Amino acid sequence: VSEAIFYVVCGSFAWRFFRRTGHTVFKPLQPHDIRVIAIAVGALILIRIAVIVQLVATHQTKHVQAGFEHYNVITKQPTVTALTITLAVVTLVIIGPIVEELVFRGLLFGSLAPRIGTLASAIATAVLFGIAHGDPILFPSLAALGLVSALAYAATNNLTVPITLHAASNALGAFVLITSSLN
Predict the structure, then answer these.
(1) Percent of the chain, pLDDT > 90?
(2) Higher-confidence residue: 120 or 91?
(3) Taking Cα atoms as reference points, which of 77, 83, 51 lies closest to residue 176?
(4) 143/176 Cα distance (integer angstroms)
């Protein structure tokens, strides 16, 4: 419920802000954007490998991101199960990345970068992004995703790029979450 409230409130605020300022949020991807996405995906793969190493080293291999500990898509009615899976995918892979990137990269990073510089604002928003997810064990990887997303946004000035990266990262997480729930 709190996540839904966050998405509605923050998403509508960010959307109004961008419309009022005339900032184009969703730009078509250009060849340069595709190259940045490819480099960022490589970085995200390295981050995932580092997370696996971290979880193995700390004996946390069964750790699930905070908030999803008791997540289950299975219901007694197959139609409801299909609907639950669909809603999970839409929320995790589409709505979440769009709203979070509008807020963290579009609003926060966009406001901080001219004042404190690209790298400092990328680090600050990455830390805030990691903290906002409320998972101390996965904080390093969540902050790293935030950092990669901020730098990708800085390199392209196109929010579609970090939204795409975030959606791809969440798609992997959603796949693991849903398949483990089905098992």
Answers:
(1) 54
(2) 120
(3) 51
(4) 20
